[in-house]
Fold this protein.
Amino acid sequence: MGLGFSLLLNSDPDGSMGSQSKPGLGDLPESCVASIMGYLEPTEICQLAKLNRVFRGASMADFVWESKLPSNYRILVQKLLGDSLGNLGKREIYARLCRPNTYDDDTKKVWLDKSTGGVCLSVASKGLSITGIDDRRYWNYIPTEESRFQTVAYLQQIWWFEVDGEVEFPFPPGTYSLYFRLQLGRASKRFGRRVCNTERVHGWDLKPVRFQLWTSDGQSATSQFFLTEPGRWNLYRAGDFVVDNAHVSTKIKFSMTQIDCTHTKGGLCLDSVMIIPSQFRERLKHF
């Protein structure tokens, strides 16, 4: 690719060199360019498509994008987009799946990571079973721009803390990690600046919170963490699970508990539960 970009620096906008004796990027066969693009990441393909007509045409080739789509993308399209593939090109299918696609009364969102095509899923706080959620003495739903669901569940104070949930989804083969997205304190805007009220935060430093998951094929994982860093959103990992069959939906049950009733705990914002490919651990801040 280094030679190609070197040629581009001396070429006209349409890819020609201005001199009839020297070839330019615009002279490359479109099929050849498409074959090369098949080895690149989706974001790189989109960047190269801006070079000229040949690269733009090559970037539309179905075989280029089919290699980037999950192996069970047809199942995902039917579940998330609610229609048949029709005449959509593979690039358009990829683009649509990269957008946040909601289902189950807007309590779940699924999208593809733009760079890798990995499937990511998020479950809103309203899609979870939360002990005491109907009693305003304990919990409230509050609006916020800091959640992809625009709402989080805020705990004022409680003795028995328990959150459960489950999701069934046709994940492509791979290893996935499940996280709870939490924050100690209640954030708001004051004079255009973010502030976080931590007055009600208490009890989380006395005993750890237990996170668990179970899958329909017998996998399980458990982890424990003290909740820390008030005023900042953190992802707490419950564990990992492996998917082998792309054509069978995997059912995952999960929970978050702190049921030591010797003390109360409060001041916690619960945003969502996230399931992402395990290789994304180094990129957690982007989620």
